[in-house]
Amino acid sequence: MSRMGDVLAGLHAAWEFDSDSVLIRYERGLRTPKLLAALGERRIPLAALAGVTLDPGRRGTVVLRAEPRPGADPLVEAAAGQLKEGCDPYRLVLPAEREVLAEYYADELRARLKPDPGPADRFLVAAPEAPLSFKAYDGKASFDGRTVRYRWFWTGASSAKWKAGDQSFDVSELNGVEWRSPEVFEGHLRLLRGEDAPAQADQDPATVVFGLGYGSVHESLPFAAAVLAAVRTRGPAAAVTAAPPGPRRDPADIAERIRHLGELHQAGLVTDEEFAAKKAELLSEL
């Protein structure tokens, strides 16, 4: 860049240019896509980019877009092409009258990129930081940086998942993740373990299922990206290092599960004995 610290502000984001990276800061306004607001800011090393484009946008705008190298960004890898245009973290929308300025920065970036760099052999963009959690339709997923945990909801979880019980997966057990956007039919987050999984996500204890209002993109995708990055970057000792004790349960989560249990009890789906035993078990986890 001609000057370190130059800033180009556009719709929902601003790009700050340094000698070896671009710092993208996303706005937190009501009109900002929730995913971008949740990301906050991201530093993109120039080594993670394959190219830069500048194209006409809608309604008197131009779009400056950095093209990430395949394999360089865990968020892009987890999304697997499912993000809508407005949620693309590499797009900067500008008024058409700033096209000349945008072209200047595009040329400056292009001059610093390696020609045809090809796929990256490791993640070059930092993943969202743990701890992370979100509520799916059938359970709550949490990740502390080393272990993914699923806690099933009484309402939503299938009988197969209840029989399997709450789940815990060290990243050393995993080969990757499969994220299917909650904006499409049968959205889910599946943890891949190198074994055949049930065809139906609602029957797989390694999968949480999304639903209307559950597992939203801005929560579940950063979660998937963080898990994927941990799986790809774990060291050789990760498989033999004992996971730390799990955190104490959130009292609000315990209260919610007891409420669900009470609803099943009132509906006659749980006996008095089962209700008392399960309630005592939940209370003991506080």
UniProtKB/TrEMBL annotation:
Residues 15-109, 141-227 form the DUF4429 domain. InterPro entries: DUF4429, SHOCT. Transmembrane segments: none annotated. It holds the Pfam family DUF4429. Residues 256-283 form the SHOCT domain. This is DUF4429 domain-containing protein.
